[in-house]
What does this fold into?
Amino acid sequence: MTTLRRTERIPFQDFEGRREAPMITKTTTVPQTAFSEEGFEAFLRGRDEPQWLTQQRRSAWQTFCELPWPHPRHEEWIRTDIRLFKLDQYSPPAAGGDLPALPHAQLGAGVSLAGFSATLNSQSAESRLDAKWASQGVLFGSLDALVSEHGELIQRHLMRRAVDSTYDRFAALHAAFWSGGHLLYVPRGVVIDQPLLALSALADGGVDFGHTLVILEDGAEATMMSESASCTPEGGGLHCGAVEVILGRGSNLRYINLQDWGRGVWHFAHQKALVRQDASLQWTIGALGCRLCKVNQHVGLIGEGANCQVNGVMFTEGKQHLSYHTLQHHEAPHCRSDFLYKAALQDRSRTVWRGMIKVDPGAIKTDGYQRNDNLLLSDRARADSIPGLEIEADDVRCTHGSTSGKVDEELIFYAMCRGFTRREAIRMIVSGFFQQIFDRIPIESVRDALGHAIASRVREYD
It folds into this structure.
């Protein structure tokens, strides 16, 4: 954070306070937000980037300055209170400084990886790709580094049609200051048969403005695991990020995203996938960490025969607040989408899921499905579930559903009669609640990591 020095003249009294003496000068330090014009220009001077990217950043900064903060009565924000969030407590990403060691990646345990990319506080920390895939034209690693080497490729996709930097002030802020992040590019027809892992980490009080860009050309196939974690479980900080997924015709992507920030992190993100003709996307989300989370997740089915399946697992405790707004946008005919979100809540935590299936005129033979199930593990927890449909075409099938309820005491009693403790019984019931989603995950280590992370957080039902 930059500072201003302010000088003022004040009267001086002797130690008995009986008379005034000549004025003296007092100097104080006044905080000034680094997300200012000065801070933005300093951020640009610290980067060596192509002119097109600098111009893109300037345009986004102008948008940020013009847009207001989200209004608490706006439908999208009425259930998510960010009055305690203060942007001026943080500074833009900057290189340098002593950083702690990277946290352990839960998703990569026991998995043979085709590549690994890691950032810490939006700075590239490690990047490697198996030579076998590099020789076939695959790119994987730090987006910061690759944007200079492959600018023409990245320019065609980066925030062009997927993430909209004018959507709100957080999207504009990210587009202006994004730093770090990861790129996966798979050329036409290349099939990567090993998963790749991208880790984004935060030190306590740090910031992460990472941008993840995934591009699969026609007929390509890959599995990418993306994990967000703090160096300390209770650490604070700010994440203002974005994910863009671009799938060519007939391509196939399995994308697993685990969010496990520290309990003090503010998490804001815009995520969008564009799925072209006959392409397939399976997107699995685990949301376990942070203080407050507000994510906009959008899948656009833009080519005939496109298919997507999105699986969401949310587990909250304490006073956590997780809010996911999803959109299944059917822009072309004969497409299929299947969104399933499940949440378990304990203590005073809260989740908000607001889903929409949108079918454009002409998108006939659409098959859209969305469902949100919530398991309340406390009388003080709250789950808001708002499914919706917006259909502008005939000959479609679109359905949605939502359930919320508590753990059945009879189930707990039944398990305890067979030797389980109450906590073990609840843990078993919660695991069974999520099993439908676990069964959809193709990688055993990911299923185990999510299951263990959730089970370790379950306490006795009050």
Observations:
- The chain has a mean pLDDT of 90.
